UniProtKB/TrEMBL annotation, chain A:
GO terms for biological process: phosphorelay signal transduction system. Signal peptide: none annotated. This is Response regulator. SMART domains: REC. The modification 4-aspartylphosphate is found at D53. SUPFAM superfamilies: CheY-like. Residues 4-120 form the Response regulatory domain.
UniProtKB/TrEMBL annotation, chain B:
It comes from the Bacteria. This is Uncharacterized protein. Keywords: Membrane, Transmembrane, Transmembrane helix. The chain crosses the membrane at residues 23-41, 47-68.
UniProtKB/TrEMBL annotation, chain C:
This is histidine kinase. GO terms for molecular function: phosphorelay sensor kinase activity; transmembrane transporter activity. Residues 675-890 form the Histidine kinase domain. GO terms for cellular component: membrane. PANTHER family: HISTIDINE KINASE 1, TWO-COMPONENT HISTIDINE KINASE. The lineage of its organism: Bacteria, Pseudomonadati, Pseudomonadota, Alphaproteobacteria, Rhodobacterales. Its EC number is 2.7.13.3. It holds the Pfam family HATPase_c. Belongs to the sodium:solute symporter (SSF) (TC 2.A.21) family. It comes from Fuscibacter oryzae. It is found in: Membrane. Keywords: Coiled coil, Kinase, Membrane, Phosphoprotein, Transferase, Transmembrane, Transmembrane helix, Two-component regulatory system. It comes from the Bacteria. Residues 641-668 form a coiled coil.
């Protein structure tokens, strides 16, 4: 599995874990720690997959998702949303905003890898 | 601006207090009157005038002390007001 | 009596006075006012009426004109005995309006007009300067009596330097105790207690000399009376004009003299003290006068013909070898002079700084209302004014060469200040009195006084040419200074008093009747004239539609009133049924605030300042009419209905606040669950992911170590969170075990600062502390308190954006409670968030990942509740500020 993944996650340790898992699977992982930088980054070249934390400093995951979907280039881009709150309401909001898949923290490593593989396959 | 009607007649204590205030107002007038008296005396030795003035002075202080004692009491609500 | 001993004892006496004043200030500050507030001290402080002019001059006056000297004391007696008429009302108004001086009273009454304040200040300074010079002269003369073999040595080499030393010492004393702090009400407890002591000294001294003369020299009271009866000196005849005129003049003076107004009205702490003073002060005067004529009689008989009668109080005992008695008399005279100068200077300095310097400063720098440190500015203005006033007195003394003409200065000063009387009495008894009338009256009276008394007092050809005395200016004979309108038969002094007051009053009435007062004037007129009528005092009048931000006002108030501003805002907020430090900007609140500021600044300046913040002109006639009809409607309801109304409003406000809080809480309850889930899941995610990775087991050793460390870190974070939650629930249930003991506040802060320094250790951050205030031993649970301190300091390190960050820790200890303020130099916390920060998980910005879970302040709040105290956000400090309040000694039962 090869491809570019943009990981937007402010918890450095969680980001490191995901980066480790996906890099081992052959992806190129770029990590961004806050929402505003992420928004700027997404105006440039788009990756093959975006993994997005819901609660971020600067701009929330939902904001980033909305701006991505508003961009014609980003409408088909697969986006995996992560959340530690795991509430229905957050899930609904994310789905309305056009998320491709949703994953609650904590997750099993195997599930994460499977989900990424599935989304990359679509793309 | 109309104030709430006040009773026409007052209880004994309030009545006393009002008259005490009248006395307090009158005291300096009495003082002025008495202190002007020596002007009407024939000019002569100063001794009697000095004694007279000191006596009037002492009386004023005495009366003021008595009145002050009475007026110093905290006012009851019904007796509030300036008249 | 050796001169050295005199100087030495004089010095010791001065140190004693400093000690007394210091002690008085100290007691007042600690709140233990006790005897400082007694009517006796009030009465004694009034005795500054008796200056050196009384102490030395009365004997001279008695020797020259017999019984007439008593007029100066009979006038005040009549005013005090008749306190129910005028003084009671003046004191009431003074307290209601927080009047700072007689100039402030006049300016406040006539529409908070600063122009009038300036005018009265000017009159007061002109009239008082020679009088201060007279006091300096009397001290110098009394020194000279001791230092020279010739008792009446007028020209002694040390004379000039004596006056300078005395003036310098007085300046130091007055600055030290007169401008120690800026009170909401301009009161100086140290000075009052010192002059009360001086009052006793001068009375004892005069009575001692008098007793010595009557029983030691004259052979008993009977003999003295016989001599007085027998005497037939030139000038001893009773002159009806002077008798009546001088009694009236001294009666006016006792109300109008700046120093009398200061002790009578401004320094009054309790209206009921006036009742005592109404007879006790006349009694004091009576005692002072009792021995004047005997001393004068015996002095005239026994002393050489060329003796200066003004110094007989000293020279008589000296001539009979009574060194100790003369010494006592000297201290009495010294007390009379110094206490007068001190109070007069304080009164004049207040007027000068409030009506001249501050308005000028604010005019030149209008932005100062919002920015500069006003307290410092005001105090500096006061200090400069004090030096200025004393400097003027000294300069006058030097220039006039200490001439004998100064002796007449007492009455001239009286007559000058008496010009304020028509505006004053008109102002408190007649609603029709207007600013135009007051200005016209004052100008007319002041000019007449200057022309007929003040300028002629320098002597013919000194200021006014002799020709003008004889023929009038430009040959207008009806304007001759001592014979206006041809009244040449009058005594010059009486002539001046008569004409100046008559013309003054006429101009005052004419001006008042013909002019139309502006609204503020009418409001103030009603408030003054109806001072005893509660309705006229209602806060409804004044600021009808306030637009100022409460925080901006608090800021302003704090820079003028200091700590008291917070207390006042808090009390007002509580009275409105609100929590915190920011009351609603109701008209009643604004009016009261303006009055408090007026207590420091004078009415005109305070009014101008609030106007500036509000950015609008003052009330209009329409406002006034609206207020009047509203007031009339309200009066229709019974008092009970009205109080019900306020009660209802308050309840409604409380309900509204509770409701708001409940809504917020329910939102927060949801947020709490989702937060707790988030806070638990985040560390759990890392732990789970890395432990799975490690289980797979094909990693290089350094990476294993790295990932192991991460798991360990996150596990610790999880534990900390659980600990906090547990701690909080224990604290909230009050089930906490307190470990009470004595702890040194400074050490607790040291500990907290050391631990907190591990938060963002890389940050440029400074803590400002005042270690002297930290010398407090608390009985409390030290560890818990330190926990609170750590939290507050760490928060400042985390969230204060300023670079470098500065945290000021200020400690105050009053009445068994200690407050510790933590104030940083950041941007502070927005108003709408201030109520929320103490709630669980209420970290303000989710963006800032600062490690904690947002439970810190919630825990602090619970800890402080358990320690019998509070922690609250302190608004209006520019930066974020937290105030920790706790009892000095926590009893076990409170835990």
């Amino acid at each position: 599995m090869a491809g570019q993944v943009l990981l937007i996650e402010d918890e450095a340790n969680i980001a490191e874990a995901i980066r480790f898992l996906l890099t081992r699977d052959g992806c190129q992982v770029e990590v961004i720690g806050d929402g505003l930088t992420a928004l700027q980054r997404l105006r440039g070249d788009l990756p093959d997959l975006v993994i997005l934390d819901l609660m971020l400093p600067g701009a929330s995951g939902l904001d980033i998702l909305a701006s991505l979907r508003a961009d014609p280039r980003g409408q088909g881009l697969p986006v995996l949303m992560l959340t530690a709150k795991g509430q229905e309401r957050d899930r609904d909001a994310a789905e309305r905003a056009g998320v491709s898949a949703f994953m609650a923290k904590p997750f099993a490593n195997a599930d994460m890898r499977a989900k990424v593989r599935q989304l990359m396959g679509q793309g | 601006m109309r104030r709430p009607r006040q009773p026409l007649f007052l209880a004994r204590a309030s009545y006393r207090r009002r008259r005490l205030r009248d006395a307090a107002r009158l005291l300096p007038v009495v003082g002025v009157f008495l202190l002007m008296l020596p002007l009407l005396w024939p000019q002569g030795g100063a001794g009697s005038a000095v004694i007279f003035v000191f006596v009037v002075w002492a009386l004023l202080i005495g009366f003021a002390a008595v009145l002050a004692h009475g007026l110093d009491q905290p006012e009851t609500p019904s007796a509030a007001g300036d008249d | 009596m050796p001169f050295d001993i005199l100087v030495l004892s004089c010095f010791v006496y001065v140190i004693f006075l400093f000690a007394i004043a210091f002690f008085g200030e100290r007691r007042a500050q600690l709140g233990g006012m006790g005897f400082l507030r007694s009517p006796t001290v009030y009465t004694l402080s009034l005795s500054i009426y008796c200056t050196a002019w009384t102490f030395y001059g009365a004997v001279g006056y008695g020797a020259r004109s017999g019984i007439e000297f008593m007029t100066i004391y009979l006038g005040p007696t009549l005013v005090f005995v008749g306190w129910w008429w005028i003084l009671r009302k003046l004191v009431r108004i003074g307290r209601q309006q927080r009047v700072t001086s007689i100039a402030d009273l006049i300016s406040s009454r006539y529409g908070k007009s600063n122009g009038l304040g300036v005018l009265v200040t000017l009159i007061a300074v002109v009239a008082a300067t020679p009088y201060i010079a007279l006091q300096l002269q009397s001290v110098t003369l009394s020194f000279a009596v001791f230092s020279s073999d010739q008792p009446e040595g007028w020209a002694t080499p040390i004379r000039a330097s004596t006056a300078l030393w005395v003036a310098g010492g007085l300046a130091v004393f007055t600055i030290l105790f007169g401008t120690r702090r800026l009170d909401a009400k301009e009161q100086h407890h140290g000075i009052v207690i010192a002059i009360a002591v001086e009052a006793v000294v001068k009375l004892v001294a005069l009575v001692a000399v008098g007793s010595f003369v009557v029983w030691g020299l004259a052979g008993g009271p009977g003999a003295v009376i016989d001599r007085i009866e027998a005497v037939n000196l030139q000038g001893w005849q009773l002159q009806p004009g002077r008798w009546v005129g001088l009694i009236a003049l001294s009666a006016a003076a006792v109300i109008c003299l700046p120093r009398m107004f200061q002790v009578l009205v401004v320094e009054n702490v309790d209206e009921r003290h006036l009742a005592r003073a109404s007879w006790a002060f006349p009694l004091y005067l009576f005692a002072m006068c009792l021995f004047i004529l005997p001393i004068a009689m015996v002095g005239l008989e026994q002393m050489p013909a060329d003796t200066n009668p003004d110094m007989m109080v000293l020279t008589l005992p000296l001539a009979h070898g009574q060194g100790a008695l003369a010494m006592l008399a000297f201290l009495g005279g010294f007390s009379s002079a110094t206490s007068m100068v001190i109070v007069e200077t304080v009164a004049l300095a207040t007027m000068l700084s409030n009506h001249v310097i501050m308005p000028l400063w604010l005019h030149l720098r209008p932005e100062a209302t919002r920015s500069a440190d006003l307290r410092g500015g005001i105090l500096l203005a006061r200090r400069l004014s004090i030096i200025g006033v004393l400097g003027l007195g000294l300069a006058y003394y030097r220039l006039s060469g200490g001439s004998a003409a100064l002796a007449a200065m007492g009455l001239i000063a009286f007559a000058g200040m008496a010009q304020v009387l028509p505006a004053l009495l008109g102002g408190i008894f007649w609603r029709g009195a207007s600013r135009v009338g007051a200005i016209l009256g004052l100008l007319t009276g002041f000019a007449t006084w200057g022309w007929t008394l003040f300028l002629p007092s320098f002597g013919q050809d000194a200021v006014i040419p002799a020709q003008v005395f004889a023929l009038g200016p430009f040959g207008l004979s009806w304007l001759r200074p001592e014979a206006l309108f041809g009244t040449a038969a009058m005594d010059p002094l009486i002539h001046s008093i008569f004409w100046s007051l008559a013309l003054n009053t006429a101009a005052f009435f004419a001006g008042s009747i013909l002019s139309f007062p502006d609204p503020v004037e009418r409001i103030q007129g009603a408030a003054f004239v109806n001072a005893f009528d509660a309705e006229a005092q209602g806060g409804r009048l004044g600021w009808t539609h306030g637009q100022a931000e409460p925080e901006a006002l608090l800021n302003l108030a704090q820079r003028i009133l200091g700590e008291e501003a917070l207390t006042f805002f808090e009390t007002e907020a509580r009275a409105q049924g609100k929590e915190g430090y920011l009351p609603d900007m109701t008209p009643a609140f604004l009016t009261e605030l303006e009055r408090r500021l007026a207590g420091s600044l004078g009415a005109a300046t305070a009014h101008a300042m609030i106007s500036q913040l509000f950015g609008r002109a003052t009330v209009t006639v329409e406002d006034l009419m609206a207020v009047a009809s509203e007031a009339a409607q309200i009066a229709e309801y019974s008092a009970r209905l009205e109080s019900n109304q306020t009660e209802l409003t308050r309840t409604a406000r409380q309900l509204r606040e509770v409701n708001e809080k409940l809504t917020q809480l329910s939102v927060q309850k949801d947020a709490f669950l989702s937060q707790i889930s988030h806070e638990l899941r985040t560390p759990m995610t890392s732990i789970r992911a890395f432990s799975e990775i490690l289980t797979e087991g094909d990693l290089p050793a350094p990476q294993v170590a790295d990932y192991g460390r991460i798991i360990h870190e996150e596990a610790k974070r999880l534990t900390r969170l659980l600990d906090d939650l547990l701690d909080l629930s224990v604290l909230e249930n009050g089930a906490v075990q307190l470990n009470l003991g004595l702890a040194h506040l400074g050490e607790l802060l040291d500990r907290a600062a050391a631990v907190a320094s591990q938060t963002r250790p890389d940050r440029a951050f400074r803590i400002e502390r005042d270690v002297t205030t930290e010398e407090i031993y608390l009985r409390t649970d030290a560890d818990r308190l330190v926990q609170v301190f750590i939290n507050l300091i760490s928060n400042a390190r985390k969230y204060c954006e300023a670079n470098p960050g500065v945290l000021r820790i200020a400690i105050r200890h009053r009445a068994g409670r200690v407050t510790v303020d933590f104030i940083d130099n950041g941007r502070g916390i927005p108003k709408e968030k201030q109520a929320l920060i103490f709630e669980k998980f209420a970290r303000l910005t989710d963006q800032t990942k600062a490690g904690g879970a947002g439970l810190g302040l919630a825990i602090c709040r619970e800890i402080m509740a358990n320690l019998g105290g509070t922690v609250a956000y302190l608004p209006g400090q520019r930066g974020a500020a937290f105030r920790v309040t706790l009892p000095l000694r926590l009893e076990r039962s409170a835990a």
